[in-house]
Amino acid sequence: MFNLVIFGAPGSGKGTQSEKITETYGLHHISTGELLRDQIARGTELGKIADSFISKGQLIPDDLMVRILDAELDKPEAKHGVIFDGFPRTIPQADALSKMLAKRGTALHGVVGLELEDDELIDRLVKRGKESGRSDDNPETIKERLKVYHTTTQPLREYYINDGSYKGVRGHGSVEDIFSSIRTHLDALKANEPI
Ligand code: ATP
Ligand code: MG
User: Fold this and answer.
1) What single string gives the DSSP state of each residue in 139-185?
2) Which of 33, 103, 128, 156 is deepest in the core (most CB within 10 A)?
3) Does ligand 1 come within 6 angstroms of the Cβ of 12?
4) Chain centre distance of CA 46
5) Cα separation, 142 vs 129, whole angstroms
6) What phi and psi values does residue 145 have, to the nearest 5 degrees?
7) Which residue in the list 128, 143, 157, 183 is annotated as catalytic?
8) What's the average pLDDT block by block, 10 residues per block, for the chain (195 residues)?
9) What is the Å distance from ligand 2's center to 42 Cα?
10) Is 28 within 8 Å of 177 (Cβ atoms)?
11) Cα gap 61→89, rounded to integer Å
């Protein structure tokens, strides 16, 4: 059992690195962004609510987000360890996460933060927007998402530094080089974890 958070600004590469981590460590990937986009594509009630926030670059309310996560954690595939991608994004979500894990007799074992500057993030998101068709990858919404990131999500970096679980990794360079830094850290972390 090994639970990890991959942390970082919009466009920092959380999804890409999560896939590599999932392959290598056999963890279950929970991407809140993908989960919500799937609901939007299927036109569900939840999708409609989610879209009203996402298209403006705002966060989905904490109570709703926590309920979604709680249901995801009840799935059998989540029992052997999860990589949380896009969650938590606020301090209340982080508090809720540790409670949800404790309730299931487990805990968060580490947080990997992908660190890079806003200029690079904006470049990447604008490029992605040209192909992804995502309603939030346009210059105006990107600006809002970065603002929300700095005011509401970035304080979590401090939060996880203070509890000793944060490891920052440089988010520049090739996917393989970044993953190699992550792997060095995770191998050390795993070696200290009773399985
Ligand atoms: P990355 O490119 O690093 O994968 P991202 O910010 O582009 O990250 P997602 O994680 O896919 O994108 O999230 C897209 C949107 O979904 C967010 O901007 C937000 O509106 C909503 N969302 C996702 N996770 C949460 C959450 N934990 N709390 C509130 N809203 C969320
Ligand atoms: Mg993503």
Assistant:
1) HHHHHHHHHHIIIIITHHHHHHHHTT-EEEEE--S-HHHHHHHHHHH
2) 156
3) yes
4) 19
5) 10
6) -65, -40
7) 128
8) 94 97 96 97 97 97 97 95 98 98 96 97 93 90 97 98 97 97 95 70
9) 18
10) no
11) 11
Q: List the strands of the sheet with 82-85, edge to edge.
A: 28-31, 82-85, 4-8, 110-115, 166-170
| Interatomic CA distance for residues 119 and 128, integer angstroms | 14
CB atoms within 10 A of CB 26: 10
Report the alpha-carbon distance of residue 143 to residue 124 in Å, rounded: 13
Query: Amino acid identity of 137?
Result: D
The fold of the 4-190 domain, in CATH, is Rossmann fold (3.40.50)
Annotated domain spans of the chain: 4-190
Structure tokens at 94: 């982080």
DSSP for 65-100? Answer: HHHHHHHHHTSGGGTT-EEEES---SHHHHHHHHHH
- The H or E element spanning position 107 is none
Helix (H, G, I), strand (E, B) or coil at 135: coil
Token pair for 188: 């050390």
Token code pair at residue 10: 């919009």
pLDDT at site 191: 86
